[in-house]
Design brief:
119 residues; single chain; 2 helices; alpha/beta
Length: 119
């Protein structure tokens, strides 16, 4: 029986560019770094970025997979990321369920969202 999601991997042909974005722009701290794979970890959940021989260029299907990154204050994070040049395709908006969501992309065109839970 599946009991949850333990990780997500984003494959790329330019791991150095994605590492700069996830580490230096988003401020994520790597848990493990190799030349072809970097892992970030929060508790039991991992986000990986890795170099893959079958991946070339930016994604052609930007909305096929969307990764939600949890934040405590979406407005603070939005301001910090926009000051670093991150362009949001959806500025933070309150959802019908009470939380907040804002959408942007990484350098490979993968869609990411900041998600602040309902108070």
């Amino acid at each position: 029986m599946i009991n949850g999601v333990v990780g997500v991997i984003i494959w790329t042909d330019d791991i150095d560019n994605l590492l700069l974005f996830y580490r230096d722009v988003l401020g994520l701290r790597p848990h493990s770094v190799r030349s072809d794979f970097v892992s970030f970890k929060w508790g039991d959940i991992r986000l990986g970025i890795g170099k893959h021989s079958e991946v070339n260029g930016i994604t052609k299907e930007h909305h096929r997979v969307m990764i939600n990154l949890g934040v405590d204050d979406i407005h603070v994070e939005y301001k910090a990321l926009t000051s670093k040049g991150v362009h949001f395709t959806r500025t933070p908006e309150k959802e019908h369920w009470g939380g907040w969501v804002g959408t942007f992309s990484d350098p490979d065109g993968n869609t990411l969202q900041l998600m602040q839970p309902a108070a």
